[in-house]
Design brief:
Layout: H1 3-13, E1 22-28, H2 31-48, H3 54-79, E2 85-93, E3 96-105, H4 110-122, H5 125-137, H6 143-149, E4 153-162, E5 165-175
Antiparallel strand pairs: 1-2, 2-3, 3-5, 4-5
């Protein structure tokens, strides 16, 4: 299957149209490209959120950085030179920012990731605050904890299978007027 046909097939799987006011990337995502893509994302947010206060824009951009870096770091740690295709899609629509990532996951990592995401999803605000403090003190990853703690944001995730590959999709919907 050609590259464009493969992308079209995956866009249908994840229900993603490409529109003018969206930032979208399909392809290998490693540390080198991640930095460039984060710069593009920053420019995108500056353009579409120019009327928002800097604190709100920073909160949204930080969530974007965490999601993109998580995919990049996973790819480098688990796929070495064979970096899988990754999707990052960002759009601003009706006072909301939508950030969606889809990244190939190794079958043996699904249970651990699912358990971690379910655990975060079921924590109370106090438990999330305690996890955040523990992660901060012990130099652990803060990204998903920080995203789960965001006010006026919906954090959804799912595992999907396509062509014998497992994908972790994450969607973060932020009502930016109240982020």
């Amino acid at each position: 299957m050609g590259a464009l046909a493969s992308i079209d097939q995956k866009k249908k799987l994840f229900q993603l149209p490409l529109k003018e006011d969206e930032l979208e990337y399909w392809g290998p995502l490693n540390h080198t490209f991640c930095n460039s893509f984060l710069t593009m994302g920053n420019n995108f947010f500056e353009k579409y959120l120019e009327e928002m206060d800097i604190k709100t824009v920073k909160t949204i951009f930080t969530a974007f950085v965490e999601l993109v870096q998580n995919a990049s770091e996973y790819n480098e740690a688990h796929f070495q030179a064979n970096i899988p295709q990754t999707l990052v899609n960002v759009k601003v629509m009706n006072d909301h920012v939508f950030i969606r990532t889809a990244n190939q996951i190794l079958k043996e990592d699904v249970k651990e990731l699912k358990d971690r995401l379910e655990r975060l999803e079921n924590l109370s605000s106090d438990e999330l605050a305690a996890d955040y403090k523990d992660a901060l003190i012990n130099n652990k990853s803060l990204g998903l904890i920080m995203i789960q703690r965001m006010k006026n944001a919906d954090f959804e995730w799912a595992f999907q299978e396509n062509e014998d590959q497992i994908w972790l999709t994450i969607e973060l919907k932020i009502q930016y007027g109240k982020a």
